[in-house]
Amino acid sequence: MASLYAQVQIHDTTLIGEHCVFGFPKEARVRAEQQKPGSVSIGAMVTVGPNCIVASHVVIYEGVHVGADCVIDDRVRIGYDSTVGERTRITYGAYVCDRVTIGADACVAGFICDATTIGDRSTVMGELVHEYTHPHEGWWDVEEAPPVIEEDSVVGYGARVVGGVRIGPRSYVAAGAVVTKDVPPGHVVTGVNIHTPTEQWPGHRLQGLIRHWLSSPGPRVW
Prior knowledge:
Structural class: mainly beta
Shape: globular
Oligomer: single chain
């Protein structure tokens, strides 16, 4: 099966830790080879840009592009055909599924389901998952809508975003919250789908972030 691994292009200035795997083949190509040995197809190339740090025990599947100045921490998995924008950090143990798009200057941890989009400068420390409402139809037969996290938003530790919902820009999903409905731009989410406009948020701990959003270039959301 070693011949199934995709080609890899890593910039000379990037540091690679120990026991990393690059270009691991996606399941469809592995299954095709098992059914018809010798019919090896070519996997999409992996590219890692300049000045990145890829720590130890990282697995990066075929077709992944990692932009410049990224940090991929220990024990991270990045699934096939995913894209990681420049200066983004993928923290320890993150599980990024397939076909995920992560913007620039983001910070990502936790579990990120297939085809999720995470915008520039967003932080995702919780779980982004599909609804998984069709388990009887087979693992590969259903394409469920993934979450979309727009730019400058935060999903806190232990928070869970379920299904094809959209978190509007400059919104904050508090630690432990559950989101199953779209979040408008500029809202704080607590509990289960409790939305509070950011300008009405009474807590003092987020006031620094709110002031930063107000003073930074970008779309005004209130």
